[in-house]
Amino acid sequence: MKIADRISHITGGSADGWGVYYRARDLIAAGERVANLTIGEPDIKTDPAILEAMAASAASGNTGYTVGPGQEPLRREIAARVQARTGVPTNWRNVVVTPGGQAALFAVHMALLDAGDVGLYCAPFYPTYPGTIRATGAKAVAVPTRSDRAFQPEAAEIEARAAGARTLLINTPNNPTGVIYSTDTVAQIAAACVARDLWLISDEVYDTQVWNGAHVSPRALPGMAERVVVIGSMSKSHAMTGSRIGWIVAPEPVAEAVAVLATNTTYGVSGFVQDAALFALRQGAAFEAAIAAPFHRRRDIVARGLGNSPAVRLIPPEGAMYVMVDIRATGLSGAEFAHRLLEQEQIAVMPGESFGAPAAGHLRIALTLEDGALEAALARLRGFAEALRG
Amino acid sequence: MKIADRISHITGGSADGWGVYYRARDLIAAGERVANLTIGEPDIKTDPAILEAMAASAASGNTGYTVGPGQEPLRREIAARVQARTGVPTNWRNVVVTPGGQAALFAVHMALLDAGDVGLYCAPFYPTYPGTIRATGAKAVAVPTRSDRAFQPEAAEIEARAAGARTLLINTPNNPTGVIYSTDTVAQIAAACVARDLWLISDEVYDTQVWNGAHVSPRALPGMAERVVVIGSMSKSHAMTGSRIGWIVAPEPVAEAVAVLATNTTYGVSGFVQDAALFALRQGAAFEAAIAAPFHRRRDIVARGLGNSPAVRLIPPEGAMYVMVDIRATGLSGAEFAHRLLEQEQIAVMPGESFGAPAAGHLRIALTLEDGALEAALARLRGFAEALRG
User: Fold this and answer.
1) Nearest-Cα residue of chain A relative to residue B117
2) ipTM attached to this prediction
3) DSSP single-letter state for residue A65
4) pLDDT of A264-296, one tens digit each?
5) Distance from the A5 Cα atom to the nearest Cα atom in chain B, whole angstroms
6) Residues B290 and B279 in one domain
7) Residue B319 and residue B150: Cα distance in Å, rounded?
8) The domain containing residue B310 runs over which residues?
9) Domains in chain B: how many in total?
10) What is the rounded CA–CA span in Å between residue B190 and residue B197?
């Protein structure tokens, strides 16, 4: 009995690079004290007021089927939010609600890629990106970026890989690097997409976590709204990872295609979860700033704790809930460093290799530990690195 | 800018057959009184105790990411349930939790079909079936069944269409026909799948709605557990349509493939919804019987109301929340009959043509109206049909 070739195509036959994460989880389960800086899960729970809004919606009877593309009030709220943040005219027909940002990523690639097409994505990358593209039957091709250029994508690297490509997936503010694409970078990306007639899929789920400069959505550039699909989510902005709710904002033909897919893949999103999201989005900017604030504080803790180390070079951390550090001066790979750091110091971080070749010799540190514990862990990480360098 | 060919492949370019449904919805929105017997939504809300379990889980902090294949306690509960109902040894690794039965249908076809393969399904069919198969890039091929054989699939019809096929999708108790596949039918289907080396995907979401005889899961037949994937859902058994939670039960390699897909398509199901499902499954048989009871009562109302009519022939209604009637004696197509019935009698039913050619000249009546209103609507439907026959 044969499984579809699709499945081995998705995994690419390689290890998933999450060995440190699994080992840390096992140690924690066994009662060990581990400073866990591996995954991007906010260390706060969803706000009780949001959960009460969900419970109230369910109790009032919103427990039946919802229409595929999402409830109209939520689609209108998301459209208004996106328009207010970018200035781009956006209406509710541009919006499709999905069961999470990952489902949005998958749906839009399904809507835009056929088997045999090429889908581009920038490396370093969020680990599901290549598998998401491959799940459609397409070929996933990485566009490398360079540590010494703060992992900003360059038009020439995109264009060099555009043969057969129909889409380019970017992420700013970026996971895993913590950088924000500059205005110039976004303009270069947009120009490359126009030159090679690519759809640009812009994952902006960290757009409320901006510590330096400004987040520029490529959809706001002249003429780009017809070519850009934005991925959004409540997971990071509102600490609602477990609610599994996200969206796409897209030209209407793409939104309609994603709605067709929704009928055949998900059959809609729980109405009470949509009502909770609507309530959450209406809490306003101060609510969102309060959720982002700990990561901003911790970014500063990292900058203070690791600045000027001869062994640990900080990639300028501008946004998102991660920082990336270059530990090549220690002579170890990211994977070797991370495994030894876990065993010797009980600190778990992700090896850069888990996010693609350009992040080899780097580590991703998730800012998901309480400030004091983070500061102490960083001091030990720094000492560990500097001792290696000798 | 081009949308993937996949999208037009999914829709097949044909009208969706839901004109009567949309028209009824518009009439109801405009304030008209319409007896709506179109869709399979239970006319009760999710039980408050289940919603309270969900709210309690969320309030207690189960608001973060969950692992892809589902929470282990829920997977164990589902495995135990399936084993108890079928006698087939089943462990939690055979189970993957999905965001609804539709998501389960899609995931298993994604795991078993590559682009260009053939996926078989029986007609009449639940309307998402062909699109779900096509969404994978595969070709969807209908296996016809016959009204005068109570729409029971026959091995010869399956084998005649097995060239290039890798899967066969069946549904018993059946939507839209209201029949239950007999022991002989299930044995014939199983034998055909063995003969042609097909995976058998068995949609059993109506398995708590059995009015005559017994539901036989093909997974329980000798040697079939390694070839059968069962689709389950909380939507009908527990009136939880809006919670979007379902599952697959499959051989471990298939379950593992579906879990790989989950990482790249959904990233898990809300933990608080899984906890609500676990609570609901533990309410036991009496709870489920109470949810099924109104449909059983209404099935009897239909049998009384339409029995022995010279114009309306009842397909023996054995299970699920629908009955199908043959109105060919009126000389109208199902679509003509349904449109005229809506305009003249303000009764909305689905034309059989919406479910494939073998149901042409038939109507599907959903048992989702309160008993007295259903009885009155049926009397008018019968009168309308008999007047047509003259």
Assistant:
1) A4
2) 0.96
3) -
4) 999 999 999 999 999 999 999 999 999 999 999
5) 6
6) no
7) 13
8) 5-45+286-389
9) 2
10) 10
